[in-house]
Amino acid sequence: MRDEIESLGDDLWGRYEEWDVSIPPLPPRSRLYRLEPIGIGTPYVESLTGYIARLAEAHCVTPKDLVMLEIMPPQSQTGPLLNYYNRLCTFWIKNALTLNGVSPIARQWVERLESLTTCNNLTFLTMLTFHEVIALSRLLRQSKAWCSQCYEEWRQAHQVVYDPLLWSLNGIDICLRHRQPLVTRCPSCQKTLPFLTQTTRPGYCPRCTHWLGSRKGPLNMVGQSDESGVSTYQHWAAEVSGNLLAAAPSLAVLPSKKQIAIKVKAFLDQHAAGNVRKLARLSGVGFDALWHYLHQESVPYFDSFLKMCFALSITPLEFLSTTTISSLKDVGFNIESVPTISRGQRKHVTEDDVQRMRQVLEAVLAVDDQVDPFPSLNDVAKRMGFDASTVRRHCPDLSKAISWHYKNHWVEESRLGVMKQALEDALAHSEPESLANVARKLRCSTSSMWKYFPDLCRAIVTRYRERFDDALIEQRLREVLASDAENTAIQELAREMGYKRQFVLGRFPDLCKQISRRRYAERRRRREERIALLCKEIRQVAYHLHSQGIYPSARRVSQELGDSHAILSEAGRDAWCQALEALGYPTVHLKKNT
Ligand SMILES: [Zn+2]
Ligand SMILES: [Zn+2]
Questions:
Q1: Which pLDDT does position 432 carry in this prediction?
Q2: How far is the CA of 151 from the centre of ligand 1 (A)?
Q3: 204 - beta bridge partners?
Q4: Contact assessment for residue 291 and residue 268, using Cβ atoms and an 8 Å cutoff
Q5: Could you tell me which residues come within 8 angstroms of residue 483 by beta carbon, excluding any fewer than 6 positions away?
Q6: CA–CA dist 266, 279 (Å, integer)
Q7: SS3 for 95?
Q8: Residue 363 Cα to chain centre, angstroms
Q9: How many C-beta atoms lie closer than 10 Å to residue 83's C-beta?
Q10: What is the DSSP letter of 212?
Q11: Do 354 and 394 form a contact (C-beta atoms < 8 A)?
């Protein structure tokens, strides 16, 4: 064998490939899993609090353990341990609320989590990109809001369940995907939920562990002006805010405070001829606030910023990322951008008011009705805060012109075709729709619809009226009455079935009364039980202290009970006095005080 190898000689090394057996350098390991954040660069980007909850779940620990053992571990803290526990408490009570926003705490946490996971894009799970242009307060909601349908869909499709950043913004009240109002209370325990708690799990109520998703659509708020309870503004706000979040990672430069001043100045010059008061009226922002923005002394609150952008027909992204503005006419007319002029009912209409009224009416007359639906005088007057008759009295010529335009808008064949199509679509739709809603979407009056298509209108109205399922409501109410469980409030029952409280009350007054009475009695009984138990405890503690030779003062008893409020209640104080009396202590001075 050896001879053979030797005979091969140098040839051997040429015949086999060479292996490099040195150990390659390992890239640095991350302390925690490198959990990729969801949806960066999309309107549905994840929130930092949601990410922390997911990160905890990925490690099979609670957020409490993740925070205590990894993110804020005691050994990393300086100062006494007691301070550390105080800091932890403050975190859960106060700071966890601000993690998705623009606060220094948010920045600290992003940095800490980035170093623990080696993900370098966690900034976009917060609003930190906009920290220079949006005020810190009023940016985030006080408690969590979510779309039940989104949760349910993700779960059904075996996708990751998470909390988008958009849902945590103040002023965003609907889900972009489902166009339904966000839910703010747990359907099971009726409580509002904090963004992050020590036991938060994405998609579940941390208080009662109930699953928060639901396949049921939005609650139909019967009797509300808009059936889904969602206005054009809310849709717009959700959409443009989503676009703002989506654009954050691709912004070349972070928007600066100066940008707000530049944009306000541009609007001032272009639309208000340098008159700050006029721009304040047009934009719905206060004079002082505009002045501060112009001089870079303050930045807008997020919700005010959205409203200002809406009034000026510009998206927040454009406002923050471009220096020029397109003319208002290009953007199209929107009835909701008509400013409020009236200074309140019964207030005298001044010369100045009439002047502004005329400006608005002239602007409305300039609307290109080939492109945009023409508004009625009624609508415009209402937006300005006046009766149509007041507007007619002060500006007869312009009012007449608007009414004429509006009336003739629907006469043309092609437009009548559009109206008919809309009515037929509404009838064919699986969900019954009110005529008022169809009219609103089409931006025409219901009377015009009745005039041209009475049969279709009648069919829609009948179908809408018949949508209530009385039998189902009654059955549910009887079920509740028959069950032994604690009675739910009518308000909650109504909400659960998708109706308003008054509606259910109006249809089944007797059943509702029975439920309320039983609920009241039950609560009363429980209250009495609670008080009786408390009194018993107070007596026991007082006897116990006495037996040890200690005077059972209010402070000592409270201390023993671990509840400083117990003895403050009337029943608690009475129980304590009785116990003292029974033990032979003087109580006259105590009774005088009460
Ligand atoms: Zn949704
Ligand atoms: Zn709950």
A1: 77
A2: 7
A3: 211
A4: no
A5: none
A6: 11
A7: helix
A8: 34
A9: 11
A10: -
A11: yes
Instruction: Report residue 553 as tokens.
Output: 């003062």
What's the rounded mean pLDDT across residues 60-79? 84
Cα gap 461→307, rounded to integer Å: 34
Q: Which residues pair with 146 in a beta bridge?
A: 183
Ordered by start, the domain boundaries in the chain are 30-253, 255-337, 351-407, 413-465, 470-520, 523-592
Homologous superfamily of domain range 255-337: lambda repressor-like DNA-binding domains (1.10.260.40)
Q: Would you say residue 211 has pLDDT above 90? A: yes
Which runs of E-coded beta strand occur in 237-387? none
Contact 236, 315 (CB under 8 A): no
As a whole number of angstroms, the distance between CA 582 and CA 575 comes to 10
Tell me how far CA of residue 379 lies from CA of 371, 382, 383, 407, in angstroms: 18, 5, 6, 13
Closest-approaching ligand to the CA atom of 209: 2
Between the CA of 309 and the centroid of ligand 1 the distance, in Å, is 25
> 327 pLDDT band (50/70/90 cuts)?
very low
Which residues lie across from 316 on neighbouring strands? none
- Give pLDDT tens digits for 292-311: 998 888 899 999 999 888 88
Pick the ligand that lies closest to the CA of residue 152.
1
Question: What residues does the ion ligand 1 have nearby, CB within 5 Å?
Answer: 147, 149-150, 175, 177-178
> 199: number of CA atoms within 13 Å, CB side?
7
The pTM of this model reads 0.55
Are the CB atoms for 245 and 139 separated by under 8 Å? no
Nearest ligand to the CA atom of 218:
1
Of 344, 315, 303, 320, the closest CA to residue 261 belongs to 320
Distance CA 332, CA 363 (A): 12
389-422 pLDDT, tens digit each: 889 998 888 888 888 887 777 777 777 888 888 8
pLDDT in tens, 517-575: 888 888 898 888 888 888 888 888 889 989 988 888 888 888 888 777 777 778 888 88
